[in-house]
Amino acid sequence: MIVDRDRIERRIAAAIEHLRGPRYSRSLRAIQRHAYIPEYMATLAYFTAELESLGFDVDFDPVGTLVARNRPVGTPVVGLGSHCDSNRNGGAFDGTLGVVVAVEVCRSLSELEIDVPLQVMSFLEEEASGFGELLLGSRVMLNDIPRERIQELRSIDDGRPFLEHASEAGFCPDALDRSGEALDDLIAWIEVHIEQGRVLQDAGVALGVVSGIYGYIHGDITITGRGDHAGATPMNARFDPVPAMAEIVLELERLAREAGADTVATAGEVDVAPRLINAIAERARLSLDVRSLDGGRMEVIVDSVTQFAVEAASRRGLSAAYAERGRAMGTGMNPEIVQLLEDCAEAADVPHLRMASGAVHDTLMVARRVPSAMLFVPCRDGVSHSPDEHANCGDAAIAVDVLVPAVCAAARSGTRKGRS
Ligand SMILES: [Zn+2]
């Protein structure tokens, strides 16, 4: 199988450039497209036309995840894709590159006259920019969001319900429960995504083979003290929650470092009330974002920092309490597919690195039902969720080169398993 990398690189670059245009982004300064806005629907229409020209039947799940196949429903297929929505100040590569690469794999196979049973997907609303819920399309598909919560979801733009927007966009949210059927025929799933970090760039390799996706626990620690006059209250008569908050932030950092590789923790939101230069705060709050491949390790960090917070607060005559916002467990990728991708990278002489993903992706959900893996393409300086986001389309072409033999092999072994 000889893939013309230069030609694929040019086509990927042209597609990314095209999808930066005014038809596909609400802003010209950054990429802005979230579920159901005209620019998002135009992006789906673009991919629909590309896939139809390659002989795919394009369909949508009940909320608008694009599902394109070159075999009838009921036939085993290998899945490829990502998402094509952006965050509200996004770059041209996050998600979209994965769908463009999936289309290029289909095109390359067609040029090589190799017929592989494939399904391309572009998940709805991965970024939470339209309705505030991360991985919305894939979580709906995996039945991971309670029905009542889905009914409560409102558009960040106009406050109207998600389900109303879905049906106005031409989808059939009444059939929500049938969304999971889109995964029924998948024997394997591979998502290509930009790394969004700088591990690959620093290692000087063109491709990351993802071994697992971190889970996360999100929560808040609130410390309550007593508001007072900043000048008139002596240092030994204060119940100031801010120094306690500072100790807790440092302890969180220490715990995460101590946990070692594949675990990170961030206090990304800190606030105090009231926020006045001449007053001792009455209350302070810090958010916790703890991520790891290992669910137990995340729990240990959250429990330890909570206990530390309670003690640190009580030493100062304050109180502290933790409340969880939400969590998702991490997942390992399918070892056979990971190995297959590494073998194909080796065969194509592509320097690669096995690594975990600190960011969540739709594949976190898909992997619950389908043997899954991901490939990372380096992104410049690790910058993502920013208009400055940039990836080398030559690296994306390398991903296509690795995926072409990989999907052939995955289809063959899946068919064998199906027969046995
Ligand atoms: Zn993404």
How does this structure look, described?
This protein folds into two domains: 5-213 and 330-419, Aminopeptidase, CATH 3.40.630; 215-328, Alpha-Beta Plaits (2-Layer Sandwich). The chain is 37% helix and 22% strand. The mean pLDDT is 95. The chain is globular, with a radius of gyration of 23 Å. It has helices at residues 5-18, 38-53, 96-111, 136-141, 147-152, 162-168, 199-203, 241-259, 295-315, 335-347, 362-366, 393-419, and strands spanning 57-60, 66-69, 77-83, 118-123, 186-194, 207-213, 215-224, 228-229, 263-266, 270-273, 279-280, 283-292, 319-328, 331-332, 352-357, 372-377. Strands 1, 2, 3, 4, 5, 6, 14, 15 and 16 form a nine-stranded mixed β-sheet that branches. Strands 7, 9, 10, 12 and 13 form a five-stranded antiparallel β-sheet that branches. It has a two-stranded antiparallel ribbon with strand order 8-11. With 420 residues, it is α+β, with helices and mostly antiparallel strands. It binds zinc ion.
Brief characterization of the structure:
By secondary structure, this protein is of the alpha+beta class.
Task: List the SSEs and their pairings.
Blueprint: H1 5-18, H2 38-53, E1 57-60, E2 66-69, E3 77-83, H3 96-111, E4 118-123, H4 136-141, H5 147-152, H6 162-168, E5 186-194, H7 199-203, E6 207-213, E7 215-224, E8 228-229, H8 241-259, E9 263-266, E10 270-273, E11 279-280, E12 283-292, H9 295-315, E13 319-328, E14 331-332, H10 335-347, E15 352-357, H11 362-366, E16 372-377, H12 393-419
Parallel strand pairs: 3-4, 3-5, 5-16, 6-15
Antiparallel strand pairs: 1-2, 2-4, 6-14, 6-16, 7-12, 7-13, 8-11, 9-12, 10-12
The protein binds zinc ion.
